[in-house]
Amino acid sequence: MIRPTSPAGAARPTGRVSTTPPAGAAGQKTIFRLDEKEEERKRKDREKELAKEAERQRRDAAREAHRKKQENYQARQRAQEEASHSQHYQSAPAPEPAEKQVRLSESIVVSELANVLGKTPIEVVTKLISLGTMASINQRIDFEVSSIVCQEFGCKAVLAEEDQAAQEAEKPSDPTKQVARPPVVTVMGHVDHGKTSLLDAIRESKVAEGEHGGITQHIGAYQVKLAGGQIITFLDTPGHEAFTAMRAHGAKVTDCAVLVVAADDGVMPQTEEAINHAQAAGVPIIVAINKIDKPGANPDRVKQQLSKLGLQPEEWGGKTICVGVSATKRLNLQQLLEMIVLQSEILELKADPTMPARGVIIDSRLDKGRGPVATVLIQDGTLKGSDIFVAGTAYGRVRALLDDMGRKVKDAGPGTPVNVMGFDSVAEVATTFSVVDSEATARDLVAKRLARRKIQRTAQAQHVSLEDLFAKVKEGAIRELKVIIKADTHGSVTALSDALGKVTNEEVMVQVIHGGVGAITETDVMFAAASDAIIVGFHVRPTPQVQKLAGQEKVDIRLYSIIYEAVEEVEAAIKGMLAPKFQEVVFGHAEVRQAFSVPKIGRIAGSYVLDGKIIRNGDARVIRDGVEVYSGKIASLRRFKEDAREVLSGFECGIGLERFSDIKEKDIIEVFKRQEVGRD
């Protein structure tokens, strides 16, 4: 029997029908349901994020609106306050802040100025550099510079009372009353090259005959009047040491320097030192080539040597005036004087003769019959009898005036040297001489200067040294390291100069201002003190007196036996990486009185112990004419025939040195040891 179909033509199921779908269809529907749930979850998450973002934007907008509302409110408040303030104080001007005043002395140390201003020393040094003044923390600056610094920091500098009195005593001259004054010329050069003989020929006198050994022992000041009416003042010194001492004390005395060079000897070491001193002082140099009448004279060789030292003669295209002269034959003296007058006309030297006298002490002495006497070079004004004066810490009243020929004079004008009697004490050389209005002013001024000097000694300025070089470079207080080189040979001086000249960087430059052969002398120490330089010694030694002077003048002396050690130490000082410092402790010195040979032992130095003691097996060096010729160990030490462990001062002994037999009489044997010391 056929089953009926549905209207759609499908077979109608019969009996019980199962509603369970097939396995494949059920799995597909389950997957669809999971995808829909995931989409629904993501949709809800997006709606939440959008709601959070909308809420965040709403809060930001509310905060911005509140901020703008606050700003507008504050602006309205300020406008109202300003309007009320201007209305209330419309008739009364705004008071200016009171300017702070600080009392300063005529000169002050940079660190002290910083304390007065309430600033750090580095701030003051930086301000000085910006003003064009290179000064270290321990350097002194004058009142003019310190007052400008005070103005930069918003303060007004007021001169202290004692310096006000000094300033009144040293008022500047009136330019409208100035007239031409004689030039002041310093005669310099090597010993026995004819400095005083040349001056003697110009003055037509016999100065040198009155000096010990025919060599100038004292500073002399003389005037020479030419046929045309011009007057020249000459300074004859014992050497350029006095010239350096004056410059070290800040006395600007010389207008021109005449360098005397012997035509037969040529340029000597002391000639080079004289050139360096004059160039460091910044004065023009006129060269007088003396002794051209001698058979061995060679002026061209002298000019060639001068050219190597930076003094190019005019006839060779340079700027240095060179005149060949003869002091004994009186040759070309007039030409030399004309060149000096020409140089003075170029300098346009002027002074005011109407003002109270002011000058500088050239020389001073204690005369048995006359008391304290000083040679004064008048620079401004006119000095008269009975004038009351002050010179450093000395004062007095003029009792008599004597010219360079010993004749009494009534007064002395600008550019005139005169011997003054009437001092209460011996005045210091290179100090300023000033006329004051009363004796009470003079006494008060001297008392205050003495008190100030006592304070200055406690805060004495330090010169540059390798230990503090790096710190000064970092502070900006130093841009140049000046070096004086002394060595045993010219080759060593040249090698050291070339090597140290290459030691430079972007912060500091090394400049060799002088190099010489021989021992380190007191002149070198004074030159270093005046130029703020260090001394580098190569195979040379300073005497105990020189070492003492270096300690007093705070000059750093460095001694080396190997060139690269000197170069490395200077480089390390610039970079601030100095190695540990080794200090020599000297036990004593012995002088060789006789040298003799002992069989199987060798050469023995029969010596006399000058100071300290000589110890066996100690380090020793042999110094001959200030130059080190040996450095090693003491091999043997005997007192008579017995071995000795040490020999004290005042006794004789025999000294044997390891691997050294070239012992000569007058040699100095120095015994020492090296020990490490800490650096500050």
Main β-sheet, spatial strand arrangement: 7-8-6-9-10-11
Helix content: 25-40%
Count all strands and give the number: 32
Biggest β-sheet strands, sense, barrel = 6 strands, mixed
What is the 3D form?
extended
| Ends distance | 129 Å
Structural features, described:
The protein is built from 16 helices and 32 strands. It is α+β, with helices and mostly antiparallel strands and 680 residues long. The strands form 8 sheets. Strands 7-8-6-9-10-11 form a 6-stranded mixed β-sheet, sandwiched between helices. A 6-stranded antiparallel β-barrel has the order 13-14-19-17-16-20. Helix content is 34%, strand content 30%. The model is unreliable at 1-21, 88-98, 205-219 and 247-251 (pLDDT under 50).
Chart the SSEs and their pairings.
Blueprint: H1 23-88, E1 100-104, E2 107-109, H2 110-117, H3 121-130, E3 140-142, H4 143-152, E4 155-159, H5 161-169, E5 179-180, E6 184-189, H6 195-203, E7 220-225, E8 231-236, H7 240-248, E9 256-262, H8 269-281, E10 285-290, H9 299-308, E11 321-324, H10 333-347, E12 350-351, E13 358-367, E14 371-380, E15 383-384, E16 388-391, E17 394-402, E18 411-412, E19 417-423, E20 432-436, H11 439-458, H12 466-475, E21 480-487, H13 490-501, E22 509-517, H14 522-531, E23 533-538, H15 544-553, E24 557-560, H16 563-575, E25 581-598, E26 602-615, E27 619-624, E28 627-639, E29 642-643, E30 646-648, E31 652-657, E32 668-677
Helix pairs in contact: 2-3, 5-11, 7-8, 7-14, 12-16, 13-16, 14-15
